[in-house]
């Protein structure tokens, strides 16, 4: 996940990474690719040439082609005539790559964000699978379908406010 400037990054690379990272996710346009944590790297490889590394949320993710095309377009618009976007599968993407701002935006958009599962998780370890409703905050929720509008989300319903909602499934 590219959230801080890599060591040795040039000012141009930093600017281009911010531009590429600001591209909205095609399936969750409330999130940028940087907030989703799929933008893995960017480097200028020569005059007018840039290489971008993307990691899909899961192997076979249909949105990766749109992400790549959108990054190419925005970087072309910012003066980079040659843009190469490579798909990088290792290390695999996990939901821990979603930034704090991304998690907040998911909740504000009505999607229960995934819980943090990796070594950066803070607080007590969840002993059950309670998912908090993004509408009312209740943990009294039930699973309606393991898949929702996209394969990376599940459809749930709050037993308190009775509203259905998407839950971005944890993947670690």
Automatic annotation (TrEMBL):
Per the UniProt record, the source organism is Streptomyces buecherae
> The PaaD zinc beta ribbon domain covers which part of the protein?
126-169
Q: Which PANTHER family match?
A: 1,2-PHENYLACETYL-COA EPOXIDASE, SUBUNIT D-RELATED, FE-S PROTEIN MATURATION AUXILIARY FACTOR YITW
InterPro entries listed in its UniProt record? Fe-S_Maturation_MIP18 (IPR052339), FSCA_dom_sf (IPR034904), MIP18-like (IPR002744), PaaD-like (IPR011883), Zn_ribbon_PaaD (IPR056572)
Q: Where are the transmembrane segments?
A: none
Q: Note the Pfam families from the entry.
A: FeS_assembly_P, Zn_ribbon_PaaD
Gene symbol here is paaJ
Stretches assigned to the MIP18 family-like domain: 21-88
Task: Identify this protein by name.
Answer: Phenylacetate-CoA oxygenase subunit PaaJ
């Amino acid at each position: 996940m590219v959230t801080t400037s890599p060591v040795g990054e040039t000012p141009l690379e930093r600017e281009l990474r911010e531009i590429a990272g600001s591209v909205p996710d095609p399936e969750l346009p409330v999130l940028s690719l940087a907030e989703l944590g799929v933008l893995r790297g960017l480097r200028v490889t020569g005059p007018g040439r840039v290489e971008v590394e993307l990691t899909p949320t899961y192997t076979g993710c249909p949105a990766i082609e749109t992400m790549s095309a959108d990054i190419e377009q925005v970087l072309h618009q910012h003066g980079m005539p040659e843009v190469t976007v490579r798909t990088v599968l290792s290390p695999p993407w996990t939901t821990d790559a979603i930034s704090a701002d991304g998690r907040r935006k998911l909740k504000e958009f009505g999607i229960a964000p995934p819980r943090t599962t990796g070594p950066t998780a803070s607080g007590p370890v969840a002993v059950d699978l309670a998912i908090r409703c993004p509408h009312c905050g209740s943990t009294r929720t039930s699973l309606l379908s393991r898949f929702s509008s996209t394969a990376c989300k599940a459809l749930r319903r709050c037993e308190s406010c009775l509203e259905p909602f998407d839950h971005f499934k944890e993947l670690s």
